[in-house]
């Protein structure tokens, strides 16, 4: 539901618990949720079991907040179990065991690199969600509302199966030992970082020191360190002054780039956090400088959640790219692109900054390991010090309903892309789309200039994705009409077409020749009903077409192809050509009614707006 207007937002999927009967039979818990990489807590309920409705609602809420994870080609969603990706470094697992709902946060490399802000935000999200679900559940069974929660929170040690009550942890100061003699306070701090806390704890975990920093971690370190400090640290760890000088010369106005590439140079020599830590200590600089890699800058967003949780459309990317500036490398790294990908983009786009930024955003958006939302993009801008003002400006007038519809359309096409590209013949579908004005004669010519069918299909899909409604619905109808009902059913979406955009409101019918609209609205009728020879002869006689045009028309393999060639030419002619075509039809009594129908075809403002979108 739209938070401001109350209108219903498009829904792509529904969660139906009774259809999930299989228990988790993957080895994800044993292979990935290891003590070296995982922290865990449990929401423990009174009684021996939890009512099934409660964890089901929690799992449903999780699916709306984070991306369902795939592991070994399988989606991690089972009865009482769900695996999710928070980002490319952190995974979340929620599962039910007896009277406990277990929450695991798993880091790709080491639990010492888990960002406490992420852990605390995940914990808070699930705690509040469970609290509200419990209240709702109690209200449905007419229980008297209680101020006490029906569950307690407990935190595990590194064994992941030994839990200590939060009440005991809060009451202790520095240490709270479990039965294995482990101080659970360390894990507790990871889950309970205070929002206003900028410095890490004095005894912050050091079990990640053996790891080689990731590109993103080095970027965060470079953004938060002074240029002189990075220079001195690099030289202290063995980098030559000449290498630094070369970087400064290559990027004289971009000190952020110099700092980042300096740290990347150290990484190429497989430097670890331990060596960085030792270097800082030897230089008498606090080793807590490294803790910035475990921190995420707070975003005070003024963009609505409805927008933040959507994937940016092509239009948003197009408008945003020129505003980003000279941070292509930093933005690409923060969004998870490899150095090789960014270098390839820079080479492909040469010195065009806007094109580089656009390609970085498109490359990031293609990867659906983690849903590439506007929220993720906003966080990336803040992390690299850019700030999100440019993003706020771009999305301020965006309709979340339209954005969600774009997202659904794009995902459905992606899921069925192989079938569409490999299995369908599009000539008749293009006829259908021409008749409904959602593609132009130029579009058709562009699509069909590709010799291979699969390339034609790809070109058509690009148009459908970019223009959305009503193109998408007409395309799906065309599939259904011309024998591809299974694909059409897979692509079917239950949302209302977008209203005419602000750009086309008030569009005068005189902005586009009425005769062309009338002709195109009868496209299918013309190519299926007429024999072209006499009509073409008349048009050549009246100098509307040339003799060569006639030969081109006759080069079609069948009558319909010949008529398509004729229509392609007529839609490029002036009004005199249109009038001569009607005269040619009226000369033959068989086609007199068709000529009359074309001449009297109604042209609405919606027709004009639809065709206008093809010409933008």
UniProtKB/TrEMBL annotation:
Pfam families (UniProt xref): CARD (PF00619)
One BP annotation, GO: signal transduction
Record CDD domains: CARD (cd01671), Death (cd01670)
Segments forming domain Death: 330-386
GO molecular function, one term: protease binding
Entry superkingdom: Eukaryota
InterPro entries: CARD, CRADD, DEATH-like_dom_sf, Death_dom
Ranges where the CARD domain occurs: 405-480, 519-587
Stored PANTHER family: DEATH DOMAIN-CONTAINING PROTEIN CRADD (PTHR15034)
Name of the protein in its database record: Death domain-containing protein
Species the sequence originates in: Mytilus edulis (Blue mussel)
């Amino acid at each position: 539901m739209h938070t401001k207007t109350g209108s219903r937002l498009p829904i792509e999927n529904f969660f139906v618990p009774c259809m999930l009967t299989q228990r988790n039979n993957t080895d994800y818990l044993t292979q990935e949720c290891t003590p070296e990489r995982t922290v865990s807590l449990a929401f423990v309920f009174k009684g021996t079991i939890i009512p099934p409705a409660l964890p089901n609602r929690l799992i449903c809420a999780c699916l709306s907040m984070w991306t369902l994870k795939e592991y070994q080609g399988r989606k991690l969603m089972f009865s009482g179990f769900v695996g999710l990706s928070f980002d490319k470094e952190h995974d979340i697992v929620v599962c039910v065991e007896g009277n406990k709902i277990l929450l695991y946060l798993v880091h790709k490399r080491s639990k010492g690199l888990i960002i406490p802000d992420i852990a605390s935000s995940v914990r808070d999200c699930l705690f509040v969600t469970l609290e509200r679900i419990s209240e709702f559940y109690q209200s449905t069974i007419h229980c008297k509302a209680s101020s006490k929660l029906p569950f307690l929170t407990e935190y595990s040690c590194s064994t992941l199966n030994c839990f200590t009550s939060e009440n005991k942890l809060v009451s202790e100061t520095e240490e709270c030992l479990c039965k294995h003699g482990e101080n659970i306070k360390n894990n507790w701090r990871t889950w309970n970082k205070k929002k206003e806390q900028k410095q890490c704890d004095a005894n912050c975990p050091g079990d990640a020191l053996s790891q080689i920093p990731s590109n993103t971690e080095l970027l965060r370190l470079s953004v938060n360190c002074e240029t002189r400090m990075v220079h001195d640290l690099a030289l202290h760890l063995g980098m030559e002054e000449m290498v630094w000088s070369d970087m400064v010369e290559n990027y004289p106005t971009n000190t952020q780039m110099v700092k980042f590439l300096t740290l990347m140079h150290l990484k190429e020599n497989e430097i670890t956090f331990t060596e960085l830590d030792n270097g800082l200590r030897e230089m008498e600089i606090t080793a807590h400088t490294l803790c910035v890699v475990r921190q995420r800058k707070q975003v005070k967003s003024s963009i609505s959640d409805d927008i933040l949780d959507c994937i940016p459309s092509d239009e948003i990317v197009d408008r945003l790219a020129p505003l980003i500036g000279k941070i292509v490398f930093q933005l690409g790294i923060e969004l998870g692109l490899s150095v090789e990908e960014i270098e390839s983009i820079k080479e492909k786009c040469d010195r065009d900054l806007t094109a580089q930024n656009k390609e970085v955003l498109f490359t990031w958006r293609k990867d659906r390991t983690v849903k590439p939302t506007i929220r993720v993009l906003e966080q990336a801008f803040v992390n690299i010090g850019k700030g999100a003002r440019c993003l706020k400006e771009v999305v301020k007038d965006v309709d979340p309903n339209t954005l969600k519809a774009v997202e659904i359309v794009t995902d459905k096409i992606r899921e069925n892309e192989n079938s569409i590209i490999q299995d369908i013949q599009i000539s008749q579908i293009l006829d259908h789309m021409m008749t409904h004005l959602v593609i132009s004669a130029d579009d058709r010519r562009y699509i069909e200039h590709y010799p291979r069918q699969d390339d034609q299909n790809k070109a058509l899909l690009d148009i459908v994705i970019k223009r959305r409604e009503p193109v998408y619905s007409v395309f799906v109808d065309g599939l259904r009409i011309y024998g591809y009902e299974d694909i059409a059913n897979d692509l079917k979406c239950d949302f209302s077409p977008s209203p005419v955009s602000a750009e086309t409101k008030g569009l005068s019918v005189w902005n586009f020749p009425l005769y062309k609209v009338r002709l195109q609205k009868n496209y299918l009728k013309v190519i299926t009903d007429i024999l072209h020879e006499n009509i073409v002869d008349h048009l050549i006689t009246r100098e509307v077409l040339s003799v060569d045009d006639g030969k081109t028309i006759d080069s079609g393999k069948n009558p319909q192809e010949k008529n398509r060639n004729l229509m392609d030419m007529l839609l490029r002619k002036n009004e005199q050509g249109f009038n001569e075509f009607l005269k040619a039809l009226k000369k033959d009594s068989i086609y007199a009614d068709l000529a009359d129908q074309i001449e009297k075809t109604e042209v609405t403002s919606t027709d004009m707006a639809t065709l206008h979108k093809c010409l933008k």
